[in-house]
Amino acid sequence: MKRPIRVVMAKAGLDGHDRGVKVVARALRDAGMEVIYTGVHQTPEAVVETALQEDADAIGLSLLSGAHNYLFPRVAELMKEKGMDDVLLFGGGIIPEDDIEGLKKHGVERIFQPGASLEEIIAYVRIAVAKRRGQPA
Amino acid sequence: MIASAESHLAQARGGDKRSIARLLTIVENDEPGCADILRSLYPETGRARVVGVTGPPGGGKSTLVSRLAAHYGSTYDRIAIVAVDPSSPFTGGAILGDRIRMRDRFLDEGVFIRSMASRGHAGGLSRATMRVVNVLDALGTGLVIVETVGVGQEEVEVVRVADTVCLVTVPGLGDDIQAIKAGVLEIADVLVVNKADKPGADETARDLMQMLSLGKGRTPWKPPIVRTSAQDNTGIDALAKAIDAHVEWSTASGDRDARRAGAARQEVEALLREALVKRLEERIGQDRVSEAVARVARRELDPYRAVDELLADR
After folding, report:
1. What is the least distance, in Å, from the CA of A49 to any CA of chain B?
2. Is the CB of B25 inside 8 Å of chain A's CB atoms?
3. Chain-wide mean pLDDT for chain B?
4. If you write DSSP's letter for every residue of chain B in order, what string do you get?
5. Which one of A6, A38, B166, B304 has the largest count of C-beta atoms within 10 Å of its C-beta?
6. Looking at the partner chain, which of B25, B87, B96 has a beta carbon nearest the beta carbon of A36?
7. Which residues of chain A are under the pLDDT cut of 70?
8. ipTM of the predicted structure?
């Protein structure tokens, strides 16, 4: 049996806007993935520990609060500390163009801005996870 | 054993959470190394206390499980929660959302939470839940709490995995006739009326009490009825006491061992069936089976004769 892709979808920090993350979670579900949703107001520590215990292939972080330049790098840092180099970190939300390069340098592989299509996100997660698993996409 | 499974096993024995998580993935997906891992760990299973929590969707199971884990935090060094949510019958995907209600436990040092999708398995659990529980048990988890998918009336498989089954119901789901129907209610060792702060809780508790008074149960154990409000954290001590009392009774009476023996029989029989079918298919070829199936579908052959023919085939 082919192992389903497992994705932790999370919202970190003081940000209660969860409509977007739910839409994406639902889309990934409909694409056949197992989505572990943590709910809002998580700490970076809780998000990373969740992904570790769930043996997730990817963490998707949604941020609309403006705190992305702290929270994303912090999650990436904790992942590195725990040796989770094979886990994909991606995200989405209201994130200015100018900040994206910096976030990528910190280990966020991809940021989806407003207007990104669900098909795009699904295709990206599939391919990026397959690559990390060393499988053909 | 394949090298990666072996190194995960060694590290998991040392308590490394990431390796435990990896082992669970291997056994959940029946990946290479699965049988070896289970073979190696099986002698160490049977030590954990396994508590099942089942009941209808939205009844507060996850919140209650989180509270129970907190309550037992001082009793057990290591507690695991295995929470099952349904997979889509169409895409196979799933939203595993039990964790949302367990957020207070995310960073508890001694607590390990694993979400599982049911993956098309009926009965309230997934096919691999028992295996996952066995791995956690063997790795020194003192208490494993298994939360089923939200169940209806007939998903009773948790009774095979758990030593004590708590059925969580809520006010307003139906009258006393619902309470005497066969199925899920029969497997409860502890009956929980959650959301007991809501109107109708007394009636629900009364209906359950009447149900118990109408006839004899499977065993002399009479399931206590406990009222809780998981959200407000009330009634949790009483629930834990009821669980503890059941464990004490079932251990002393031999019921726990009888239940575990039944589960072992079912597990061996299931593996035996799989192995026999596989062996038969290897001997006579998959095509021969498919051909017989096609003839049955065309009504040229009845299913009973088809089985006789396949078994007689050389």
Report:
1. 7
2. yes
3. 92
4. --HHHHHHHHHHHTT-HHHHHHHHHHHHTT-TTHHHHHHHHGGG-S-SEEEEEE-STTSSHHHHHHHHHHHGGGT-S-EEEEEEEPPPTTT--EEE-GGGGGGGGTT-TTEEEEEEE-TT--SSS-TTHHHHHHHHHHTT-SEEEEEPPP--SS--THHHH-SEEEEEE-TTS--HHHHHSSSGGGG-SEEEE-STTSTTHHHHHHHHHHHHHHS--SSS----EEE-BTTTTBSHHHHHHHHHHHHHHHHHHSHHHHHHHHHHHHHHHHHHHHHHHHHHHHHH-HHHHHHHHHHHHTTSS-HHHHHHHHHH--
5. B166
6. B96
7. 1, 137
8. 0.94
